[in-house]
Amino acid sequence: MATTPPHDAAEGAPPAGPDDARPASQQEAGLAERAQRPEPDGAQTAIRTGRAPGRTGNRVFTGLSFGAGLLIMVVLALVTAFLVGQALPAFTASSADLEDISFMRGQGFWSYVAPLVFGTLLSSLIALAVAVPLSIAVALFISHFAPRRLAQGLGYLVDLLAAIPSVVFGLWGFLWLVPLLDPLYSQLTETLGFIPLFADYTAPAKNIMTASLVLAVMILPIITATIREVFLQTPKLHEEASLALGATRYEMIRQAVLPFGRSGIISASMLGLGRALGETMAVLMILSPGLGINLRVLQAGQHQTIAANIAAQFREAFGMSVNVLIATGLVLFIITFAVNSMARWVIARRAEFSGAN
């Protein structure tokens, strides 16, 4: 007759070993003795104690990164302190102290710097108005329309234009662009001379419009290269979804690419504007200077920029005249800082509405 196992025995449990029948104190002693036995070869796991590997490298990298960021802040603070310290005598000088400075023509400091600020902003804004639409078109062609080999060649060409020195652009504008634009400006004056913007043109074409066109060519590579890289980062899913819904190539770019790259376009434009604000040699070689505040962009001898004026007058400057020129440089520094701050504010406001989010 078959016997059934006790009901408290676990079904399928392993048979009790000799150690399981010992008291609990003896079992603990056996476990401790077993833990102290040497493991066979290949079964022992090496446990290292002490510093984590790579901690020294992390500390060195962190220190170098922090030092680089701190160095930028220190250099900026030193430049600002130098400009403020050297410009204070010009800001606090009386009219009698400024009368001996020939290039100021008997004007006060702010009366002298106001036309320079106007000329700087006017030339930069005209250059930006010409360069940004052209840069967007070139960037779209390279990133979405051109064949691969042609796009690579155009990309290299755009990058090469950014490496050309400004003096070369100045020579190109003075020797080739000025004679080329002379008949066009004459025709504009004859046809649209009733508009002050195109009135009173006289050859040669060494005016603010020609200088602005040269600036537009100079900032074109910077803006185009930045916008091209932003357009290439557009998610393919957005483009394919737009095309799948029946959009044309133009509609896909308007719905997916341009909204995604809006903040990048603004950033690239501000980079180009910063380059145009501080450009010196090309403007100095092309523009016939003047201290007027008007919109007669085709008339020579009406405008001047801060950077070109400093370069033109600094060679013969001494004493208080040096402080005056440095003060105008401080004004340009403040304008550039304000432009960059405004660009960051605009980008921050539009970031939450961009296609990346």
Would you kindly provide a written description of the structure presented here, covering whatever features stand out?
With 357 residues, the protein is mostly helical. It has helices spanning 24-36, 55-92, 95-98, 109-145, 148-162, 166-192, 208-232, 236-244, 249-260, 262-278, 281-286, 306-313, 320-351. Helix 6 crosses helix 7 and helix 8 (236-244) packs antiparallel against helix 9. It is globular and about 75 Å long. 29% of the residues are buried.
Please summarize what this structure is.
This protein is an all-alpha fold.
The helical percent reads: 55-70%
Strand content: under 5%
The run of helices and strands is HHHHHHHHHHHHH
Q: Specify the overall morphology.
A: globular
Distance between termini?
79 Å
CATH architecture of the domain at 108-351: Orthogonal Bundle
Give the helix/strand class.
Answer: mainly alpha
Helix count, DSSP H or I runs of 4 or more residues: 13
Quaternary organisation of the protein chains? single chain
Average pLDDT: 83
Region (Disordered): 1-54
Protein name: Phosphate transport system permease protein
GO cellular component, one term: plasma membrane
Domain ABC transmembrane type-1: 117-343
